[in-house]
């Protein structure tokens, strides 16, 4: 079982630049409409609550390290209540993007889900993370739903973001 600590993430940059956002209608299976927005950077902070790999039968953490042995990216997946594999968190360091790390991590999550006998993988992202949405589409995920109100109570979250839910059927 791979583990990951906040200390190991010192110096990583999981932020992303936003210059377009997906907008309604969100009637899937892909993004139907994307509009340009004034460019800004969205930053994420590490939350160890996302990583509870204490039970390998219900969760898995995969980490990819760069040539300097620092974390280049990670994915956290767990068994959800509805018998799907749930991607809890996935992040790629800005300096390591566009090198196939996201695909390798997603492949690892799908492999784990198959080993667990789970028929699908689901994940959630925000409407302002269009590059991630496009990656999920290329990987084979289908847009299955949205929630305009999921983030409204989070003080640091942009109230205009919409949660997008993506699903991937897999062969167990």
How would you explain this protein's 3D organization?
The chain has a single domain (6-169), classed as Gcn5-related N-acetyltransferase (GNAT) (Aminopeptidase, 3-Layer(aba) Sandwich), CATH 3.40.630.30. A hairpin with a 5-residue loop joins strand 3 and strand 4 (71-79). The protein is α+β, with helices and mostly antiparallel strands. The protein has two helices and eight strands; from the N terminus they run E-E-E-E-E-H-E-H-E-E. The strands form two sheets. It has a six-stranded mixed beta sheet, with helices on one face. It is globular, with a radius of gyration of 16 Å. The model has no long low-confidence stretch (mean pLDDT 87).
Question: Which range best describes the helical content: under 10%, 10-25%, 25-40%, 40-55%, 55-70% or over 70%?
Answer: 10-25%
CATH architecture: 3-Layer(aba) Sandwich
Class based on secondary structure composition and strand pairing = alpha+beta
List the total number of helices: 2
Q: Report the count of strand segments.
A: 8
Series of H and E elements: EEEEEHEHEE
| Sheet of most strands | 6 strands, mixed
Question: Rg from C-alpha positions?
Answer: 16 Å
CATH topology: Aminopeptidase
Q: Tell me the distance between the termini.
A: 21 Å
| Count of discrete structural domains | 1
Strand adjacency order, main sheet: 3-4-5-6-8-7
What do we call the CATH homologous superfamily? Gcn5-related N-acetyltransferase (GNAT)
CATH class: Alpha Beta
Low-pLDDT parts are: none
Mean pLDDT: 87
Assess the beta-strand content as a share of residues.
Answer: 25-35%
Silhouette:
globular
């Amino acid at each position: 079982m791979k583990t990951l600590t906040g200390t190991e993430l010192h110096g990583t940059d999981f932020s992303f630049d936003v210059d377009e956002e997906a907008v309604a209608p969100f009637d899937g299976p892909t993004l139907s409409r994307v509009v340009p927005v004034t460019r800004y950077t969205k930053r994420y902070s590490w939350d160890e609550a996302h990583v509870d790999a204490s039970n390998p039968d219900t969760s898995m953490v995969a980490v990819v390290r760069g040539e300097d042995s620092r974390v280049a990216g990670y994915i956290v997946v767990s068994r959800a209540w509805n018998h799907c594999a749930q991607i809890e968190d996935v992040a790629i360091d800005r300096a390591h993007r566009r090198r196939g790390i996201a695909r390798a991590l997603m492949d690892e999550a799908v492999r784990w889900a198959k080993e667990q006998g789970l028929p699908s993988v689901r994940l959630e992202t925000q409407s302002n993370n269009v590059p991630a949405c496009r990656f999920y589409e290329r990987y084979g995920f289908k847009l299955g739903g949205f929630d305009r109100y999921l983030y409204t109570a989070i003080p640091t979250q942009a109230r205009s973001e919409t949660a997008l839910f993506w699903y991937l059927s897999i062969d167990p």
